[in-house]
Design goal:
5-stranded mixed sheet; 4 helices; 5 strands
């Protein structure tokens, strides 16, 4: 599978910085969001809080704990997840949403193409579900 390049007119993405944002997304169903589980990661998504900066952008964050291994392993996982996010989030992410990827041990061993496909399906899941309800 070829790597997807973002469109030139795709929305900008930024990273989450504050602990409060990570805690807010921890339980996305409370804030009108959702979560999807894959073998490599858990994707949590929730609408951004009502402020001008966050409603115009798509923001993301990553959680890679020390359970994943030493610093070399954790950094490799972060590089892989960051690459997936930067290639797919501008295309499939919703503007005004915050996304958090919680890494799992398998994210070190799963092929990159499979991770891309899993993230693409996880990001498009709410749209698929809404289309299924309309039929």
């Amino acid at each position: 599978m070829a790597q997807t390049k973002p469109h030139l007119d795709a929305q900008p993405i930024r990273s989450l910085k504050s602990r409060a944002d990570f805690l807010r997304i921890r339980h996305p169903e409370r804030h009108g969001g959702y979560y999807r589980s894959t073998p490599a990661f858990l994707l949590q998504a929730a609408p951004a809080p009502d402020c001008a900066e966050s409603n115009q952008n798509t923001r993301y964050g990553m959680i890679v704990t020390k359970k994943m291994g030493n610093a070399v392993c954790r950094n490799r996982i972060k590089r892989r997840l960051r690459s997936c996010i930067k290639s797919l989030l501008p295309l499939y992410g919703k503007v005004g949403y915050d996304y958090v990827l919680v890494a799992r041990q398998a994210s070190l061993k799963i092929p990159y193409a499979v991770m891309l496909d899993d993230l693409k399906q996880a990001l498009s899941w709410p749209n698929d579900r809404q289309q299924g309800q309309k039929k």
